[in-house]
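SUBJECT: A protein chain and its fold
Encoding: whole-number codes for local backbone shapes
Chain under study, with its fold:
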Amino acid sequence: MSEGKENALGAAASGYLRSARHQPIEWMEWGEEAFAKAERENKPVLLDIGAVWCHWCHVMDRESYENPVTAEIINEHYVAVKVDRDERPDVDTRYQAAVSAISGQGGWPLTAFLTSEGKPFFGGTYFPPDDRYGRPGFPRVLLTMAEAYAQKRDEVTETAGSVMRAIEHNESFSGRGGALNDVLVDKLLDSAIRQFDERNGGFGSQPKFPHPAAIDLLIDAAGRGNSRAQVVAETTLKRMASGGIYDQLAGGFHRYSVDERWIVPHFEKMAYDNSELLKNYAHAYATFGNEEYARVAKDILRWMDEWLSDRERGGFYASQDADDSLDDDGDYFTWTRAEAEAVLDREEFLIAEAFYNLRAVGDMHHNPLKCVLHLSPVGGATVEQISKALKMDIDRVRELADSAKQKMYASRLKRKTPYVDRTVYTGWNGMCISAYIQSGRVLGRADAVAFAVKSLERLLNEAWGEHGLAHVVAYGEGVAARAQVAGVLEDYAFVANAALDVWEVTGEMKYFHSAREIVDTLLARFCDSEPGDAMSRGFFDTEKDKGGIGALSTQRKPLQDAPTPAGNSVAAMALLRLAALTGEELYESRARDTLETFAGIVEHFGLYAASYGLALRRAISGTTMVCVLGEDAAAEELIAAGLRPFAANKSVAWVRDMNGLPPVLKETLPHLPKQERSVAVVCRGNSCLPPVQTATELRTVFCARE
């Protein structure tokens, strides 16, 4: 390809794909055209799957895909296809499973070698430009695989067939059903508790991921009196918030920590991580009452408001990159002592160096002077310790720590900011909307609730229609896609739950109706059942019987939270919530069928199936619906009380209009005696307890119900 000329990715809408449009490789987007070309030219397909936030994807781009010699090998021997994993999760999940079956590896960049039919016969993740790290150099791999495809086609075809069968078998979960009971919830809880890192919080060792669904399951158990679950949840939340995985200046969490102490993160920041961690800290505040959790939750809101929100139109952006360039490795977020001294006065620096653990020898391998800001108990000193050591008034220490934080953040804003992917993804927006609703209610943040409602309005207007849900609301580069990417199971499930969350806080029936319509479409398009079937067998991640190229012809039923909550679990939760409001047996039975489908295998997934545990808790305990009737100050007090503690099976609805109610509530609430002030009514199924007027009475009633 001649210098300066764009390849086919110049017409792509994805920012990640467009970033490769000037590479010397003749990249094509995923689609029939690319595979028809491979068939016509009798070539294998080189599939590269990555993301705009992925550091090693950019490394491989620079080392290999921008190298003219490597590009010549690829262009001569392959049809090259590049995929944005955020834009096409259906493609990513299947080829991740394929490469894992081949090599035991997974992650990004994903490098797969396919037949012209799209069937994988070899693959890996990152390949270096030459032999190193115990890995073969990429040019050698390219030539070896091209030779195998040309001269050993029968062996390639046989391998590809075996890999396809492995994918189908591993994702079927057939014949593994079981009973739904408390024992199963306890097994999932025990899995998280067994993997708990007593010293550092979190689960397992390095690298360490937050596992938000597991934290919510632990908070739910703690609210029911499980003291061990409380220790695990609170230790983890405190250590994460003190570590470098948490952005101590701007708020928000990085994706994961490379060490077990939460100090050095992979610096990318994802909408879906922060939405779920925002829920964690709000739920912890509602359950344990620790103001520190409220502070962290408000800081996550601050970061998302500032960096991941379309304030004018509504909607949440996808991610912020880790680096400005391949040479900085988190330099935007990290500090040398000299950098801090340059922006702080003497007293402020004296406090900041102790508070943020700024040391002469820092935390980053590429630049030992660079420190990742982190606090006590992970590192650094508390304000109390600093006050004692310096013989300084504690309020003065707090004042200086706060002014240092503000000055350091203002200085950081002058640095070149890592790329923000302004793509608005449907499912991730559903997650963010729910997080803003749930945290906004607990924290008394009406602005967060209002923005969530605005974002749902945009999503329903732009991504929901007669063809169903689209996976993308809008692309960040402002380029329109040539073809709409169809919504996947998670899109439907997350948005349905978000619509129910918005109904609960607004009482507007249009959101309830939207949730019901979305769930009805989900049942029709994704449920493993036929019309008239008494039983179902869970949900596929893409529309059933749709087929597709290569591994897209296989059907998956997502159970593992990796990295977002699994589609089957989130769909079951939406169905159970709707069943409680409508009395529709179909919703209840499909939810229970889904949970029973995986009950025989889910304990082996442990904390990676914690979202299943949350749905299971609602299924076996039943939905507790707290309905607050009225609009005075007492109503807000009752809502606040109803939200405490967090419980996976509890919903709190603000009812302002008796003329617009879901079917089950319509049968009960209008028949209550007229009240002179706001009241709360606790319902389960078709029965409700007598109204209560005070927060104290409501807490007593709820505890008794549990």
Notes: The chain has a mean pLDDT of 94. Residues 470 and 487 are 5 Å apart (CA to CA).
